[in-house]
């Protein structure tokens, strides 16, 4: 080969465990190239020699037409002197050199090719529930360490049969180097057990037993990809109520798995964006507007306009849904808000008392990973919980990291994030750190992420709240720490979501975050970028009587806001209609020592309680969710916006909702329908928010406003604020792939600590 060219191609990104090497092999051979491809700690390394046009074409293919699950960050070509000694093109085993820096792929829904085999009576994988290939199957949840090879996964204990081994070794086969490759002869098997853990049926018969049990209204634990689900017939009201009773879950809605897209369309009114998310290989739960009438029991998502639905994502799900041929509630396998069970031992101990049977299998899950949740949002989607199918996909940092970072997030909806080089990786959803079991899961996630991605943290980032378990854990690590204010982290997470580093006016509206002045913040207007943050405005400060109690008892905030707006007599009168302890709480709210808050979440709570929508909640945000549901029955603009004041106080612009609260109470006493009042509350608060934001954006010469915090999960409020700001010529950043709630805090913390020279101080 006189004019042969030799070249090294370095490929980075999510390129392991996604069929990259066999893909390179097939293309290189087809192009008449010789050389090798291998995985290493930096990604995939290719060396080829052959005709210059072929070498160039291979580089183009790797950049522009990589295999479907790969996410190529870069392809760097380095010319080398031809050596002429390669005889063919080969796949070389992984080299273990240096720290592992290669992202591990996400867990991916069963591909069409695998499903066709599972459905084909003539195929050797007919009906086999663990069928997978290089284009699909479990990844993150089975990988124990890197490089990603079978011995480093929970499939290590299964020896491939000769047929599977042949596929695994054949570069032309779809299962070439598919690490979880398995069949009914050599791979994992199903078991049907009673709640005590006694094996009743092993093998395919286990599936039939589970299906029969579900069809007769029983509750079944089903082991999936990242943990156990609790399953029950979604169309059986008694069965759904029984699940609520056993799980100690009063009102929080359940997600429903449907056999196919047709069924999904019958249950929800889906737009193109929602359908795209629903059918994607990531297979999240998608919240869409409920169709009426519905075949799903009312108690699945009572009183809510939306239903969370998802499609099967493992062959086991497909086979089970085929058997029962109806929607199934598939909710996290836990009691109340504990972490989801993912080992058989844990499942029998914790879920045994909740279920009538357990459908499990012998492929271990290495790390738990809950389902992700997205919300349909006017043609696109917004992430509410970023977990299975998304974790641990790296996100690009807007600028290269100055240091390796571990960010430990907040207390509720906790995630952790690691960052180095030019990317950051957020963990799966860990949950509320109030529970000891969740805290153990948090420690495991920190270890796992640092190991998989070869991160040695130089800085640990935490929230300013001294009582958060995550803060205490960070301070215990014996590493330099940065404390980042909660709402700065929110705005940074929104900036990172858009790859932005410019200064914006940030609106961080949520339930609570530790402020720098002893007040619980949550209605904040911030001038912020990734390196600095200044508080320029906030919601009027209000008493939060009873410490943390108002979080579960919105009526207390109704008392506090009516005290501020209408005086003590009115507060006593209105409060007494909600709870007999009202006189005590009025006294508390009037005392000097009372906890103060600027929380928007608590203001929504107050409005919901004043309108008689809800005085006590059984899950975070419930009162606001139900208030929004009422408001949405009125078309936008269909109710007059109630007035909101604004005033400068101590150099900050304060949004004062007292006239709005007064109007709400008067309207209620006049007998205005509650839907109208809820709509007027949304319209008025949004208009007041826009007026404050426009004034502050102009005063600080900022063309862009970023919206973050759990309050912006309220679609009606978020849309009204966005449209108002855009009408004033401002650019608006809303969350897309990073959750606006506290699930995004660790990403915001990591982005700040990666690119800032010094720990940013919140200037007040
Ligand atoms: Zn497949
Ligand atoms: Zn086999």
Structural description of this entry:
- There is one protein chain.
- Helices cover about 35% and strands about 20% of the residues.
- A hairpin with a 2-residue loop joins strand 19 and strand 20.
- Mean pLDDT is about 95; it is low at about 95-100.
- Helix 15 runs antiparallel to helix 16 and helix 21 crosses helix 22 (about 715-725).
- It is α/β, with parallel strands linked by helices and about 775 residues long.
- One zinc ion (ZN) binds near residues 133 and 135.
Overview in brief:
By secondary structure, the protein is of the alpha/beta class. Helix 15 (554-566) packs antiparallel against helix 16, helix 15 packs across helix 17 (582-590) and helix 21 (674-699) crosses helix 22.
Mean pLDDT: 94
- Bin the helical content: 25-40%
Bound molecules: zinc ion
- Proportion of residues in extended strands: 15-25%
Q: State the end-to-end distance.
A: 71 Å
Number of helices: 23
Total E-strand runs? 32
Query: What is the 3D form?
Result: globular
Rg, nearest Å: 27 Å
Strand numbers in spatial order across the main sheet:
7-6-14-8-9-13-10-12-11-15-16
Reported for the largest beta sheet, the result is: 11 strands, mixed
Computed structural class: alpha/beta
Low-confidence stretches: 97-101
């Amino acid at each position: 080969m006189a004019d042969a060219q030799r070249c090294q191609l370095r490929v980075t990104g999510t390129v392991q465990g996604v069929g990259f090497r066999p893909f390179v092999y097939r293309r290189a051979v087809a192009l008449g190239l010789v050389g090798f491809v291998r995985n290493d700690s930096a990604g995939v390394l290719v060396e080829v020699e052959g005709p210059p046009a072929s070498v160039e074409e291979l580089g183009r293919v790797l950049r522009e037409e990589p295999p479907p699950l790969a996410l190529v960050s870069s392809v760097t070509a380095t010319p080398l002197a031809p050596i002429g000694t390669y005889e063919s093109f080969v796949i070389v085993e992984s080299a273990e050199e240096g720290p592992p820096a290669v992202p591990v792929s996400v867990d991916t829904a069963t591909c069409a090719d695998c499903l066709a085999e599972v459905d084909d009576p003539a195929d050797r994988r007919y009906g086999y529930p663990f069928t997978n290939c290089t284009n699909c199957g479990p990844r993150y949840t089975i990988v124990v360490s890197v490089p990603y090879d079978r011995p480093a996964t929970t499939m290590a204990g299964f020896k491939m049969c000769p047929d599977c081994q042949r596929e695994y070794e054949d570069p032309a086969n779809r299962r070439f180097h598919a690490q979880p490759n398995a069949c009914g002869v050599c791979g994992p098997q199903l078991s049907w057990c009673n709640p005590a853990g006694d094996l009743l049926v092993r093998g395919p018969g286990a599936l039939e037993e589970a299906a029969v049990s579900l069809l007769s209204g029983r509750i079944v634990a089903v082991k999936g990809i990242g943990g156990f689900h609790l399953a029950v017939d979604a169309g059986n009201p008694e069965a759904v109520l029984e699940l609520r009773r056993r799980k100690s879950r009063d009102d929080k809605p359940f997600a429903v798995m449907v056999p196919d897209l047709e069924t999904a369309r019958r249950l929800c009114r889906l737009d193109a964006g929602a359908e795209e998310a629903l059918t994607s290989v990531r297979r999240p739960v998608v919240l869409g507007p409920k169709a009426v009438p519905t075949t799903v029991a009312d108690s699945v998502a009572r009183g809510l306009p939306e239903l969370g639905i998802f499609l099967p994502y493992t062959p086991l799900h497909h086979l089970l849904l085929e058997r029962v041929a109806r929607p199934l509630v598939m909710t996290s396998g836990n009691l109340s808000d504990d972490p989801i069970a993912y080992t058989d031992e844990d499942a029998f101990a914790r879920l045994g008392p909740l279920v009538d049977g357990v459908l499990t299998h012998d492929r271990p899950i290495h790390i738990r990973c809950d389902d992700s949740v997205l919300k349909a949002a006017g043609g696109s989607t917004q992430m509410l919980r970023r977990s299975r199918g998304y974790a641990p996909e790296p996100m690009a940092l807007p600028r290269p990291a100055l240091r390796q970072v571990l960010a430990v997030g907040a207390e509720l909806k906790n995630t952790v994030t690691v960052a180095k080089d030019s990317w950051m990786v957020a963990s799966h959803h860990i949950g509320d750190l109030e529970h000891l079991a969740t805290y153990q899961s948090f420690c495991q996630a920190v270890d796992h992420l640092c190991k998989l991605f070869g991160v040695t943290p130089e800085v640990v980032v935490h929230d300013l709240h001294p009582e958060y378990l995550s803060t205490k854990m960070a301070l215990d690590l014996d590493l330099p720490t940065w404390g980042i204010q909660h709402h700065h982290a929110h705005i940074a997470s929104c900036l990172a979501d858009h790859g932005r580093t410019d200064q914006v006016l940030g609106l961080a509206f949520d339930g609570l975050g530790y402020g720098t002045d002893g007040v619980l913040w949550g209605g904040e207007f911030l001038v912020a970028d990734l390196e600095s943050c200044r508080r320029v405005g906030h919601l009027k400060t209000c008493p939060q009587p009873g410490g943390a109690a108002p979080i579960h008892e919105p009526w207390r905030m109704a008392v506090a806001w009516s005290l501020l707006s209408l005086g003590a007599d009115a507060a006593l009168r209105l409060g007494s209609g909600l709870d007999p302890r009202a006189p005590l709480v009025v006294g508390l709210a009037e005392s000097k020592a009372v906890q103060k808050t600027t929380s928007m979440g608590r203001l929504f709570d107050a409005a919901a309680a004043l309108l008689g929508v809800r005085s006590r909640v059984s899950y975070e945000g419930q009162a606001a969710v139900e208030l929004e549901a009422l408001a949405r029955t009125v078309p936008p603009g269909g109710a007059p916006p109630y007035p909101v004041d604004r005033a400068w106080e101590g150099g900050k612009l304060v949004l004062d909702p007292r006239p709005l609260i007064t109007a709400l109470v008067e309207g209620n006493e006049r007998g205005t329908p509650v839907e109208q009042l809820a709509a007027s509350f949304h319209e008025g608060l949004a208009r007041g928010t826009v007026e404050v934001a426009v004034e502050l954006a102009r005063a600080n010469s900022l063309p862009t406003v970023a919206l973050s915090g759990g309050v912006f999960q309220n679609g009606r409020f978020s849309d009204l604020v966005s449209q108002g700001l855009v009408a004033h010529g401002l650019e608006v950043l809303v969350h897309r792939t990073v959750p606006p709630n506290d699930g995004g805090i660790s990403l915001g913390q990591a982005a700040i600590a990666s690119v800032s020279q010094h720990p940013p101080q919140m200037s007040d």
